[in-house]
Design a protein that fits this description.
Length: 260
């Protein structure tokens, strides 16, 4: 079973450029998208209905063309949630949590901490609220996976220029400490655990500076897998061959033990 996550930085733009078809070549069982930046009514029909998949959207209500997530699944989830329980976060359309038979998958677009101290605090508050939410899900005995654009690089190996970014959001100590907390609670960073010594492995590059051409990037997109489920993870990849966004897709594969 393959799970794919991609911050598309505008689903209509990805579709217009032709890269919408590229991600489906990965043959995902579940595809999670972040930052769709559109109301569902304004999306191309090809992105709203995909043959063989249940399509779910959370466009948010805070402002038009902002944030938003989508999830496509071959098997319909038993239950779906679109909130983490705090209005100021829920209005931005940042989460879809899908309950499958063997595990719960949460697709999340975490806030960017730029544009001043208030937005950084919003990001940190979102981190804490989300973690409380997902821990409450896990406390019911469910095995949890969450994925998406975390908007923070964890360790120096996860960005091209760590020293230059020590005081910038996305690599601040307090942001990185939250990922430490996540791992300490038993969620496994799938890519780094399977590729502990891999360098120059990034999922985001700044468009304005053409950073992708030089691979001056950041690994800020993750799959975090409940330790109880991680034994089923057979592969984790970053798909730098797929373009269309300032991020590229990432994926994990689960072994055949059990079904979704």
């Amino acid at each position: 079973m393959k799970l794919v996550s991609w911050n598309v930085n505008g689903l209509r733009a990805v579709h217009r450029k032709g890269n919408w078809k590229d991600v489906w070549k990965l043959e995902p069982d579940v595809l999670c998208l972040q930052e769709i930046k559109a109301d569902v009514a304004d999306l191309p029909d090809e992105t709203k209905e995909v043959t063989g998949y249940t399509a779910l959207f959370n466009e948010g209500s805070s402002k038009k063309g902002y944030s938003g997530v989508a999830l496509y699944a071959k098997e319909s989830p038993e239950t779906v949630e679109y909130k983490i329980g705090e209005e100021r976060f829920d209005v931005e359309g940042r989460i879809i949590t899908a309950y499958f038979r063997d595990f719960v998958l949460s697709n999340v677009y975490f806030p960017n901490g730029g544009q001043g101290p208030e937005r950084l605090q919003y990001k940190l508050d979102f981190y804490d609220t989300f973690l409380s939410y997902i821990e409450s899900v896990r406390s019911t005995g469910k095995k949890v996976i969450f994925c998406g654009d975390i908007n923070t690089a964890h360790e120096e190996v996860d960005l091209a220029r760590p020293k230059e970014n020590e005081k910038n959001t996305g690599f601040l100590p307090e942001e990185r400490a939250w990922i430490d907390e996540v791992i300490g609670l038993g969620y496994v960073d799938a890519y780094r655990t399977l590729h502990p010594h891999k360098t120059d492995a990034y999922s985001y590059w700044d468009l304005k500076t053409r950073a992708r051409d030089r691979n001056v990037g950041w690994r800020i997109d993750y799959f975090f897998v409940d330790q109880a489920l991680f034994q089923r993870v057979s592969d984790a990849r970053i798909h730098t061959e797929i373009f269309g966004s300032d991020h590229c897709p990432i994926s994990i594969e689960l072994g055949n033990k059990g079904q979704i």
